[in-house]
Design brief:
By secondary structure, this protein is of the alpha+beta class. Helix content is 69%, strand content 10%. The protein is rod-shaped.
Length: 345
């Protein structure tokens, strides 16, 4: 009931009645002033009272009629605008209103129609961008899969395949020497065992790349601990992991850091011939520090162009820079390799 009497129709009606009341007060004041000052015979108190009653009665009827009739069209048009806004809120931007009048309400209706057209155009643009993004993601995924397959095929051919071929040749040579020269055959068998161990290490490193790149719901600390536990069971390397008790990072940072650690361990397994690996994760202020060290054979960072441009180091550097961090590598021949990564978080 309160909302009904606060509508625009009753607002106009109250305005008319207020005007009628003010007009009656003014007329009463003038009539009384003339009656007191000039005392004309025709202007009596009864005449003033009768005139005011007649004026208020007629004015009330006219105000009510005028208030309802003059606001009917306005109320209808405002209702149309209200319905249009509701349609926009529900996502129906094709709705519109059409008014013949050229007043303020007509201008508001026209502007709302233009707003609906712009919103509809933006929806189409967003849908087109979403489709393009989906197509781009699909194409990028296919390209990444093809690239990874090619890299694994190349690594298998360049490393494991050649090592297996060498094992075959060395095994055949050892078999031929077994009866004629047992000592030489024993030496060749030792070489076969060393080559087999190297091929096995290379294969483990390649299989490490085939692990899921995400943490599968685990925290970074848990994911790295499980990864190291798995590698310790399959290799002779002594892994040392140091992480803070509470390490709160965004999911994106955790995924990238986990992939960087995975890539660094793969490089160590394939190239370092290390017996000890240390991984330290620390967080100070708003920065995450990742430190990876091995006691392997190392390489010349300045002159070894092949190592500096290797796929693994390039990937780690790109992932670090993608997070706004810095990637630093230090190494010397026969003195191991040190990787320092600083990431803002």
């Amino acid at each position: 009931m309160k909302e009904k009497f606060s509508s625009i129709r009753y607002l106009f009606l109250r305005s008319h009645l207020s005007s009628l009341f003010l007009m009656a007060v003014v007329i009463l004041s003038l009539a009384l002033s003339v009656h007191v000052l000039f005392q004309p015979a025709w202007l009596t108190a009864e005449a003033i009272f009768f005139f005011l009653v007649l004026l208020l009665a007629a004015g009330f009827i006219i105000s009510v009629y005028s208030g309802f009739t003059s606001t009917g069209n306005i109320k209808v048009r405002l209702d149309h605008i209200s319905v249009l806004i509701t349609q926009f809120a529900n996502g129906n931007y094709l709705s519109s209103v059409h008014f013949e009048e050229r007043d303020e309400i007509g201008r508001i209706g026209k502007e709302l129609n233009e707003l609906g057209e712009k919103l509809q155009a933006q929806v189409k643009s967003l849908q087109r961008m979403a489709d393009e993004k989906a197509e781009f993601a699909s194409s990028a995924h296919k390209a990444a899969v093809i690239e990874e397959r090619q890299r694994l095929a190349r690594d298998l051919h360049d490393a494991v395949s050649q090592q297996l071929f060498a094992l075959t040749m060395m095994s055949e040579a050892a078999v031929k020497q077994l009866d004629r020269n047992p000592e030489k055959a024993k030496t060749q068998i030792r070489e076969v065992a060393a080559a087999a161990l190297k091929a096995q290490t290379e294969m483990r490193a390649l299989l490490l790349h085939l692990r899921p790149i995400d943490l599968s719901g685990e925290s970074l600390k848990q994911g790295v601990a499980h990864l190291i536990e798995e590698l310790q069971q399959k290799s002779q390397i002594d892994f040392r992991l140091a992480t803070p008790e509470e390490l709160v990072l965004s999911r994106t940072v955790e995924e990238h850091v986990f992939r960087i650690i995975q890539e660094s361990l793969s490089n160590i397994l394939r190239h370092a011939d290390a017996t000890e690996v240390t991984i330290e994760l620390t967080k100070r202020s708003n920065e995450l520090f990742l430190y990876v060290r091995d006691n392997g054979r190392g390489f010349d960072v300045v002159n070894d162009a092949e190592r500096k441009t290797s796929y693994g180091l390039k990937t780690m550097r790109e992932r670090s820079e993608e997070l706004g961090g810095t990637f630093t590598i230090r190494s010397s021949e026969e003195e191991g390799t040190y990787i320092d990564i600083r990431i803002p978080c």
